[in-house]
Design goal:
Alpha-Beta Plaits, 3 helices, four-stranded antiparallel beta sheet, globular, 105 residues, alpha+beta, 30% helix
Length: 105
């Protein structure tokens, strides 16, 4: 009897930790201008995350959105609170998306 070969998908460290219940979920927050301009830019350049949030990066963009914040949070509620905090501080309109790296699918 031949042994069937199984294709085993190698999981990244991030995915393995997620399955173990200890990883943060990746979020992308898009910011559209409504108000504070230069003050908002200064705030985003010095953005400090709460203890349970990891900010991967902040980008300034051209187009519909002026800024993008990419961060990790343990859950959607924590991410929502952080995104709302950014929106209140910058007076920007905020849209937050959950992101999954293509290589993880």
């Amino acid at each position: 009897m031949r042994e069937q070969s199984r294709k085993v998908k190698t999981l990244s460290l991030q995915t393995r930790i997620l399955y173990a219940g200890g990883i943060q979920v990746l979020f992308v927050t898009l910011l559209a201008p409504k108000g504070k301009g230069q003050a908002a830019v200064g705030y985003l350049k010095k953005l400090k995350a709460p203890r349970d949030i990891v900010v991967r990066d902040v980008y300034f963009t051209l187009g519909r959105y002026d800024s993008v914040v990419i961060f990790e949070a343990p859950d959607a509620k924590t991410a929502m609170n952080f995104a709302m905090e950014i929106g209140f501080a910058t007076d920007y309109s905020v849209e937050t998306l959950t992101a999954v790296p293509a290589k993880e699918l």
